[in-house]
Amino acid sequence: MIYRFPTLASTNDEAALARYTEGDVILARSQTSGRGQRGHRWESEVGQNLTFSLVLEPTFLAPAHQFLLSEAVALGVVDMLDGYGIGAKIKWTNDIYVGDRKLAGILIEHKLQGSSLARTVVGIGLNVNQRDFSSDLPNPVSMVQLRHFEFDLDEVLDRLAEAIMARYEQLRSGDEEQLQQDYHSRLYRLGMLDWYALPSGRRFRGTIMGVRPTGALIIENERRERHEYLFKEVEFTIGAGKPLVEL
Fold first, then answer.
1. How would you class 47 by CB atoms within 10 Å of its CB: exposed for 0-12, middle for 13-18, buried for 19 or more?
2. In whole angstroms, what is the distance from residue 216 CA to residue 212 CA?
3. Running DSSP on this structure, what letter comes out for residue 38?
4. How far apart are CA 11 and CA 20, in angstroms?
5. Strand 235-236 vs strand 193-197: parallel, antiparallel, or unpaired?
6. What is the pLDDT of residues 16-74, one digit of tens each?
7. Is 40 exposed, middle or buried (0-12, 13-18, 19+ CB in 10 A)?
8. Buried b (16+ CB within 10 A) or exposed e, 131-153
9. Helix axes 153-172, 176-185, angle to 10 degrees
10. What pTM value is reported for the model?
11. Across the strands, what pairs with 129?
């Protein structure tokens, strides 16, 4: 069921309430405290984009395999975009990019019960009909900018929820190998030599080779040494040019 609100502080916070069950969608025309990965704030023009949360109950999935759920959700988003003629990539872990521009952000929050995932809230911000963005946003893009016509938000939401749930059912059925292959095939910068940054600020050139089922990103540096990085252990550099400090 879709629950619609004119304004919420955060759709993820609302979706965490016990009255919502698996498959429910909490949609807000605007959020006052919408958040993204790494603690960033998600900005969206009122009534022009989709800001919503989807409730899942993946009790079949062990916490150690929770990244597979992130893969399924991200693939659902790019599947939907394919249907509109938009070829998108998944920037690890699960931002959605077209070229070097960000089209959507995904924030997934889990609640554990014992040794199982009891409840998951998937927050998605998708730029749909917004044409102008704040000057302090580094690289946003919207569906309307890519396809040059406005979209029906309800239709996009229905198709997006359907695509995500299809990938979720693929995961539930145990088809993890195909899911991971599909995720790898849509990885942003896969096989491309580019710049990356460590938390220390030091930067290096490397090539993404893949992602482990645990979610660890595999990057091979120019000395052909492979290292694995978890979330927040490495950052992409986009449009920054050659860094001043090299590793």
1. exposed
2. 5
3. G
4. 12
5. antiparallel
6. 999 999 999 999 998 887 665 555 566 778 889 999 999 999 999 989 899 999 999 99
7. exposed
8. eebeeeeeebbbbbbbeeeebeb
9. 130
10. 0.91
11. none
